[in-house]
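User: I'm writing a tutorial on reading structure tokens. Could you give me a worked example: one chain, its sequence, then its tokens, then a sentence or two explaining what the tokens reveal?
Assistant: Sure. Here is the example chain.
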Amino acid sequence: MAQVDEHKLMTPSWIDIGTDVEGAKAFYRPLFGWDADDAGPAEETGGYGFFTKDGKMVAGYGPQQNPGPPFWSTYIGVADADAIAAKVADAGGTVIMPPMDVMDAGRMAIFQDPTGAFISVWQAGNHRGAQVVQEPGAFSWCELNTRDVPAATAFYTAVFGWQAVTQDGGPMPYTEFKVDGESVAGMMPMPPGVPDEVPAYWMVYFGTDALDETTAKAEELGATPIVPGMDYPGGRFAVLNDPQGAMFALMQPR
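And here are its predicted structure tokens:
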């Protein structure tokens, strides 16, 4: 199991979901073998809690705050959330929630990039981020789907200092964002056929060592397949909506 004590700055460090909490627990716990631990009394924590795997934190959950379907949020680990927020407007984005302290856990902010996708940042305090990544049943990748790749590229390179490297050899161009030469996230044009009212979004991928079996189990638990299991150069992936309507993906590295 790939355990993490501290995440490299400017890389994804945490994910969480705002949703029907009990419904999410009923789905994700049997799907990935997770446990669920509330962070404390709801009147103090707002109902926030942690999904854990073998005692290690893998993701967060809380009651849905936004209209529309629930969604998984990606947090980029930063040294100074306020300094990052100051860059957002100049880069064409919008500060949705200014930096705020989350008790002694850390400091967070939520932004919207110029193409409409939401992205969050996390300045770690006592909570350092996901303790397990790149393993079955844990966060393994995140990917921006957008209708304006050049605008998104300009934004993320300006705000996070990411290097964008695009490969044009497949059916559509695919961009990998890199930090110090290491790929940390992906980006692709919005797939054809996606309705115009669907905004740009970040997709969260969870690892599996048996994609077709995990996909079948997700469907048995009430998930709806969006993209059936497909091969890609690095392995195999699938995209689903969970029973509450939140989109997520599975990936099995080759």
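What the tokens reveal: The chain is about 20% helix and 45% strand. The chain has two domains: 12-124, 139-253.
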